[in-house]
Amino acid sequence: MSRIWASYNRLLETAPLLTKALTSFTGFTAGDALAQTFVEPGDKPYDYLRTLKMGSFGLLVHGTTGHYFYGMLDSKLPGTKPVTVATKVLIDQTLWNPCFGLMFFGYLNAVEGKSMTEYKEKIEQDLQTAVMGSWAVWVPAHTINFGFVPPAQRLLYINTIQIGYNIFLSFLGNKEVEGGDEVKEKDETKKEL
């Protein structure tokens, strides 16, 4: 186990962006697999494409943006004093959290070929739930993160917790928009005109 940990830390030094992107890929893939297997009704067949979409979000968006965002946050607010930790948590949850939600729902919307109207409906229906759900998990988690976790391991720590949180995100992100059939009918009507 110590060999794996040493290898991971070497990769963080030599290829930090790729390593963090792959870590996020693993976290989002595992979260969706757990959601489909243990949380959602068992009468549906396993959706491998959905897992790929969630994993690719981790790889292409979460890992990369997290690398830059948390790097910037640590450079602007170095240290672990309680006021610094509280400020980082506040910034993360009031600025980054809603941006993350917009990126998450926007990415799924784009890879599923949905319209901007459907994206807007999804945001109106689920962004507040995602943000508030995040507060319950990430305020205490980031208090530990910013207070005790070395900056290079932040995304690994986040992705470890993210596996459980991704069960919630996967469920929320793949939930149909209420009145979704009406939105599709409106879009089809616009196309016909």
TrEMBL record:
Please indicate if the UniProt record lists Ligase as a keyword: no
Name the GO cellular-component terms. cytoplasm; membrane
What Pfam families does this protein's entry cite? Mpv17_PMP22 (PF04117)
**InterPro entries registered for this protein in UniProt:** Mpv17_PMP22 (IPR007248)
What membrane topology does the UniProt entry give? Multi-pass membrane protein
Location of the protein in the cell = Membrane
Q: Which UniProt keywords apply?
A: Membrane, Transmembrane, Transmembrane helix
UniProt superkingdom:
Eukaryota
Main location as per UniProt: membrane
Q: Describe the family membership recorded for this protein in Swiss-Prot or TrEMBL.
A: Belongs to the peroxisomal membrane protein PXMP2/4 family.
Name of the protein this chain belongs to: Uncharacterized protein
What organism is this sequence from? Answer: Triparma strigata
List the taxonomic lineage. Answer: Eukaryota, Sar, Stramenopiles, Ochrophyta, Bolidophyceae
